[in-house]
Structure prediction request, 160 residues.
Amino acid sequence: MIEALENLRSPILLAAAVASGLQAGTYYTWASGVMPGLARVDDRTFVHAMQQMNVAIVNPVFMATFIGAPLLAALGLAVADGPARPWVIAGLVLAASTAITTIAVNVPLNDALAAAGPVDRIADLAAVRADFESTWVRWNVVRAFTSTGALGCLGWALSR
Prediction:
């Protein structure tokens, strides 16, 4: 049994690191390119684009890494020991923090943006955007840091 777990250690930690890395790349891209680009457009374009992207992002590819990063890190606890274990714990805490931030902050903001309705029917696009943009951007940066931290910790655990 111990040998079987030892044989699974590297593949599980590698999968956890890859999933965390894909999450980090997603949030980094939004923080460094997508949101700064959208900051330059008019309110109608911003609200419409974000409404469409918030629907499109909920897909099997994204969800596999969104759910997979913390789950694989948790599974990593079953196979990690010695000097790798604290790094796996840190990676799990950071991966879980990314998911919790998304569920607690970003998704409700996305839902509020969707609830505003089609852009053709929103009376005050500037107010809808103002209620969404700065908070969403700030918390997305948090997700970029936590997911990048998870990647670093899980990658380091692999080398222990």
Summary: The mean pLDDT is 96. Residues 2-38 form the longest helix (37 residues). The chain is about 85% helix and 0% strand.
